[in-house]
């Protein structure tokens, strides 16, 4: 069973581990950080992050940014611990979290950006009902290669129509 709870300072060691293990391959920012750096960032910025739990065990986290109450939209992203990747956890977690975001934040639209090289995540987002809005060409340097950043979004009216369909799969 998937649940989500606000990220606490006591969860930062887990967050730091997951972020660092995903940075090189999946994140727009490849830098890694020490635990003290992460703790300082958390206290200073008070980020809007949520822990993803599988049977009460931390499996990853959601991050929220660029929330506009005037336009009723925000950006979302998620990272899973390596041991939880490729098991359908991301799909379940997003299906749990997206309705919460639409309702609690009174949203019309949820947007995300994904690296063009991350085909598994892109397929997940299409399955969830996200549509491709655009491409920032060669936006991110990964090693010696540039990769695109793909902008995708889902509207509340589009996602509402997919909830039952997705849960029946």
Task: Please give a structural write-up.
- The chain has a seven-stranded mixed β-sheet with strand order 1-2-3-4-5-7-6, sandwiched between helices.
- The chain has helices at 12-26, 35-45, 89-104, 119-128, 156-167, and strands at 2-6, 48-54, 57-68, 73-80, 109-115, 131-142, 145-155.
- Residues 164-169 have low confidence and may be disordered.
- The chain starts with a strand and ends with a helix.
- Helix content is 38%, strand content 37%.
- The radius of gyration is 16 Å and the shape is globular.
How do the strands and helices of this protein lay out in sequence?
Elements: E1 2-6, H1 12-26, H2 35-45, E2 48-54, E3 57-68, E4 73-80, H3 89-104, E5 109-115, H4 119-128, E6 131-142, E7 145-155, H5 156-167
Parallel strand pairs: 4-5
Antiparallel strand pairs: 1-2, 2-3, 3-4, 5-7, 6-7
Helix pairs in contact: 3-4, 3-5
